[in-house]
Amino acid sequence: MNQKQYSLITAAIFAILALAHLVRVTLDWSVTIGGWSAPMWLSWLAAVVAGALAFYGFKLGRQPE
Questions:
Q1: pLDDT of residue 65
Q2: For 12-38, what is each residue's pLDDT tens digit?
Q3: Which of 20, 31, 45, 61 could form a disulfide with 7 if both were Cys (CB 3.0 to 4.6 A apart)?
Q4: How far apart are CA 49 and CA 25, in angstroms?
Q5: Which 8-state DSSP code applies to residue 33?
Q6: DSSP for residue 37
Q7: Would you say 2 and 65 are in contact if contact means Cβ atoms under 8 Å apart?
Q8: Separation of alpha carbons 28 and 12, rounded Å
């Protein structure tokens, strides 16, 4: 596996994670972990961070080798 393939695969994973967080916010799903309820702002933050990582991963994966 070369760097281009790695960048595209990780970018796709981060894009799926960002989409999952956006779906959680849109559908108002609650998440409880060990009695702690995760606030919605945390999913907004995770969606932005994962989206940015996906964007840069796809950008890096499109560059010529």
A1: 72
A2: 999 999 999 999 999 999 999 999 999
A3: 61
A4: 15
A5: E
A6: E
A7: yes
A8: 24
**38: which 2 tokens?**
């995760």
Is 53 in contact with 11 (CB distance < 8 Å)? yes
Q: Which helix (H) or strand (E) holds 25?
A: helix 3-27
The residue whose two tokens read 């933050």 is 45
CB atoms within 10 A of CB 36: 8
Tokens representing 18 are 């960002």
The single-letter DSSP state of residue 65 is -
Residue 11 CB neighbour total at 10 angstroms: 20
Instruction: Give the H/E segment covering residue 32.
Output: strand 32-33
The pLDDT-based confidence of 1 (bands split at 50, 70, 90) is confident
* Pair 34, 63: CB distance under 8 Å: no
